[in-house]
Amino acid sequence: IGYPMKCLTSRTLTVSSFYNKNNLTYCKDVPGFNSSTIANNIISKNSILFMSTETKSSYNETEINRKEKLSFQAETQKLLNIVANALYSDKEIFVRELVSNANDALEKMRYLQLVSSKPSEILTGTSSDNIPQTVTDTSTFHPLEIQITTNDILNTLTIKDNGIGMNRDDIISSLGTIAKSGSEQFLKDIQSGREIQTDINNNDSTIGSNIIGRFGVGFYSSFMVADEVHVYTRKFTNKTTPNPILHWKSDGISDYELDYISSDLELINSKEFSDFKNGTKIVLHLKKDCQHFSKEDIIKDILTKYSNFVGVPIYLNEKRVNTIDALWMKNPSQITEQEHEEFYRYIANAFDKPRYKLFYKTDAPLNIRALLYVPSYKPSLFDMSHDTTHTGVNLYSRKVMIMSRNQTVLPKWLRFLKGAIDSEDIPLNLSRELLQDSSLIRQLRRVLSARIIKYFQDSSKKDSESYKQFHDDYALYFKEGIVTTNDQMEREDISKLLLFESSELSPGDVTTLHDYSLRMKAGDRNIYYLCAKKRESALNSPYFEALKKKNPDTEVIFLYEPYDELVLMQLGQF
Question: What are the residue ranges of helices labelled H in 496-563?
């Protein structure tokens, strides 16, 4: 039969190597073994060969049939190397991750300030110590901010916040444990107690909507660019005696070191730590091939790209970086035209004004906040053809950019739109750089497309002249959508946006397919169209004259572009 069996000397024997004689099992033709010796240690039972209980490697049926439940094991050093060097596609992502961590620390501090302003709602803390104890003196609070300092002489980058800070247990739990998210634990602690509703940035939301971290791996992205990372931190307390300052150090390869520096009075009283009441300071000693991250202009570009809408002020070498609000998180009625223009020019990298603006908010199937714009300029054929794989919409998660010019949440034919889409619970991969393909994303795409189409339909009814001009400029995108999509329902939805001249209307007047269908007589099942270079050619066409003789009341749509016939053939029905 040939089932493998392990012998005493670790040589592999098979059942074919044995034969049974007089109820004894003998070894046959096995080099290096004495059959008479091994036969005394082998028995045959229930058609399975077992070692005798007299041998050193003994087995019994109880051990073989026993079911065990075991935990997965991980090699920590290799896991840290994967997280630090193989998880992210671009090294500049580390700035986004560290700023997001600083933001979360500040949001925890903001939560403490909020509950402290309402003594009747102050929590008493939890066993995990992630939620601070009762605060009676709010005079110790300082404006929440992130300070970033570059030093191209020492080749260091420093990121400092005056957030909640960490104590020894927090450091071991958060920095010493890979994939352990302190922010996620903080939210669980809040939810297990009482969640405080608040108004942040003029937007009704919970404190949890501003917490960014989820996976517990972002901090380790610093080892992509640094050969040594120092963390100085002091946890906030309302007690007279402040908490000690802790120092964490690691090279991301071996172990980490943790010590107290409060005993060093000279260091504590230095300018560097004299105002360090609470918060965290991270100092990155950059690798030789990453020393360009110590230059101010490079860090400024990265901050503008990824973290420009973080809800707390970010200062780079004492200069404010993020000066534009995340308008999609605000109440639409509170946004001025000037704010719209400024935001549109930033997000679209344009100099014109938006023609249309669409604000969309929904909590199902996903929590979505979207602010979309239509440019006022007329796109050229080059604009349509030079980039057909990306839209002009950036994807954000909790105001942190995940993907620039995302091509997943909107179809290609809507790539002329500019703006931002933000979701708290959109499915992301571990590095927060890519979307995980799922039914939710596909449903989100359908919901957004339907909402945009409805918005354009409503706009055509409110101001038909403005919509007609918009259609003349952007109709080619709609027609592309009809030709390229495989979903008939989507084709018919897009076709509702098209405008055509008709034989029953005056020159220059246009109609939609929906209005055409409303004028059809009872029993009519066909929509008639005729391709021509201009209206006069269509009216003098022998095909048109023949139809009019047969059915004088039949309305005919005129198509003036050579590709319009292909569009309606692809549409098929309406």
Answer: 513-518, 535-539, 542-550
Helices (H) and strands (E) in the chain, counts: 17, 24
Cα–Cα distance, 491 to 569 (Å, whole number)? 11
* Per-residue pLDDT reduced to its tens digit, 256-273: 899 987 655 556 666 666
Residue keyed to tokens 């404190």: 207
Q: What is the DSSP string of 50-109?
A: EE-TTSSS---HHHHH----------HHHHHHHHHHTS-S-TTHHHHHHHHHHHHHHHHH
Angle at 67 between CA 61 and CA 68, to 5 degrees: 125
How many residues are present in the chain?
Answer: 574
- Averaged over 379-390, what is the pLDDT? 74
List Cα–Cα distances, 543 to 532, 538, 566, 573, in angstroms: 11, 9, 19, 21
User: What single DSSP character describes residue 436?
Assistant: P
Pair 145, 321: CB distance under 8 Å: no
User: In Å, what is the CA distance from 40 to each residue of 24, 35, 44, 50?
Assistant: 8, 9, 11, 12
CA dist 143 and 537 (Å) reads 72
Nearest partner of 285 among 227, 361, 327, judged by Cα: 227
- Secondary structure element (H or E) that encloses residue 284, with its range: strand 279-286
pLDDT tens-digit profile of 510-566? 999 999 999 998 888 899 999 999 999 999 999 999 999 998 889 999 999 989 999
Query: 420, 369, 441, 431: which is closest to 214 by C-alpha?
Result: 431
Three-state DSSP at 484 gives: helix
DSSP structure string for 305-337: HHSTT-SS-EEETTEE---S--GGGS-GGG--H
Using CA of residue 529, residue 533, residue 535, residue 539, what is the dihedral sign?
Answer: negative
Could you tell me if residue 132 is left (phi over 0), alpha (psi between -120 and 50 degrees) or otherwise beta? Answer: beta
Q: Work out the number of other CB atoms within 10 angstroms of the CB of residue 238.
A: 15
> Is the Cβ–Cβ distance between 493 and 571 less than 8 Å?
no
Q: Are 317 and 304 in contact (CB under 8 A)?
A: no
Residue 330 CB contacts under 8 Å (≥ 6 apart), including other chains: 201, 202, 203
Which has the higher per-residue pLDDT, 44 or 451? 451
d(Cα 201, Cα 315) in Å, to the nearest integer?
A: 19
* pTM attached to this predicted model: 0.74
Tell me the DSSP string of 354-385.
Answer: EEEEEEEEE-SSS-EEEEEEEESSPPPHHHHH
Q: Please tell me whether residue 34 adopts helix, strand or coil conformation.
A: coil
Question: Residue 455: what are its φ and ψ, rounded to 5°?
Answer: -60, -45
